[in-house]
Amino acid sequence: MSTAPVAGRSLGTVGIATLVAAGLGYPLLIVTARVLSPADAETFLTFWGLVFGAGSAMAPIEQEVSRQAALAEVAGRRTGFGAVQVVAVCAVGVVLLGLVVMLPPVSERLFGSGGPVAAVAAAGAIGFAFQFGLRGLLMGHHRVRPYSALVVAEALVRAVLLGGFVLAGLTGLVPLTVAVAAGSFAWLVFAWRGRSTLDLKSGREPWGVIVRRMFILVLSAGLTASVLTGYPAVVKLFKTPADGDTLSALFLTLTVARLPLLLLSPVQAMAVPTVVRLSVDADGRRRLRALLAKGAAVAVGVAAVGAALGALLGPWAVRLIFGSEYVVQPWAVAGLVWSSIVLGAVMLLAAVLVARKRGNAVLLLWALVAALSVLVLWLSPGEIVVRAVLGLVVAPTVGLAVGAWLVLRERAEGTADESR
After folding, report:
1. Residue 114 has what pLDDT?
2. Which residues of the chain have pLDDT under 50?
3. Neighbour-count burial for 377-409, b at 16+ CB within 10 Å, e otherwise
4. How far is CA 384 from CA 27, 214, 261, 381, 391, in A?
């Protein structure tokens, strides 16, 4: 029987879950913008960017585990201990990063005097490491329904807790950040669904091999996060006292524009095993290359239309939904929308490279994107809002061109070799 209908149903189920989770995320931003002052909102959005930036950095766990699980599924066996090793190595790395964020000079720079906020951010990041491991297992073994339920549960936990805290009058930074971080631990409810897919007695790899592989992938994803959700934290490093509270509206608009990309991880996780299966024969590889070329072209067209609509409606929508104190210029909204759509295409191209085990190419791609965004932010003339938006436009656009070249330049024979 053809796998196309099955793949279509799986994509539909995950797509619905992703849309529901995205829908649950927007009320959080609306509520926090309404109950916090612009200064506190800027700090909250910096926290949000750091937590979900760490989550983006952990996305390779899901992709790598889903790759291992897909290969095990094709071979008719359970996933080996290597998947556990991937999660363990990355969890240790997150703990070390969390300790750095909690250092007073770092936490004060990012959150003012928010030492507790830094601790909550570290805890939320650790939860992501385990959640992505479970999601990779579920996706690789076609457990689409529990996978989709977990995607929704993560966002639902945040929405329910934050709503409860607001109703109880707990509207300070710490309670609201705790509500956001708690969603990272929704995986605990679903852990038993992944246990049956594991065979802990087989598939062990040398720890050094795991560390090197995941270091490259996580470093690549960390660079991704610097232009995805962690960008507010990056911009904050370049902010001077003369800039005042001018970044709160930009950060809010950026977070809204980026929220769908936080939920692109399920699509990336599906893309990895799909590329593995399509790369088995020459016909599948030809179809894959055609699909990728068309997808890149469509992304540019959609980004252009989205930018135009963003410029036309964005400033009005931001004031209407979040309050009159949040003012953002049309050109800024256009740039953020263009950046988000193009960046989504780059993320999918990177997932294809992950499936082909081309970790060095993934690292090269995201290093280029991250370096360009920082250089433009640092060296461009003008106020910080202009520089921040320009960095977000230039870097993903160049990244899309480079990513498409890296993926499409391969001949079928090379792709076949790498898929093994």
Report:
1. 61
2. 1-6, 411-420
3. beeeeeebbbbbbbbbbbbbbbbbebbbebbee
4. 28, 34, 24, 9, 10
Answer yes or no: are the C-beta atoms of 106 and 38 closer than 8 Å. no
- Report the C-alpha gap between 143 and 17 in whole angstroms: 14
Amino acid at 345: A
Strand partners, 198: 79
Entry pTM: 0.72
Q: Determine the Cα–Cα distance for residues 278 and 284; give it in Å rounded to an integer.
A: 4
- Dihedral pair phi/psi, residue 268, rounded to 5°: -60, -45
Rounded to whole angstroms, the maximal C-alpha distance in the chain is 65
Cβ atoms within 10 A of the Cβ of 295, count? 14
Give the per-residue pLDDT at 156: 93
CB of 161 within 8 A of CB of 182? yes
Alpha helices in 323-358 (DSSP H): 330-355
85, 14 contact by CB (below 8 A): no
Q: What angle do CA 249, 57, 93 make, to 5 degrees?
A: 125
Strand partners, 79: 198
Residue 37: DSSP 8-state = -
Q: Which residue has the tokens 């964020």?
A: 101
pLDDT of residue 342: 92
Say if CB 130 and CB 91 are below 8 A apart.
yes
The alpha-helical segments, DSSP class H, found in 36-58 are 38-57
Tokens of 76: 């008719």
Q: How far is CA 209 from CA 85, 86, 258, 338, in A?
A: 10, 10, 33, 38
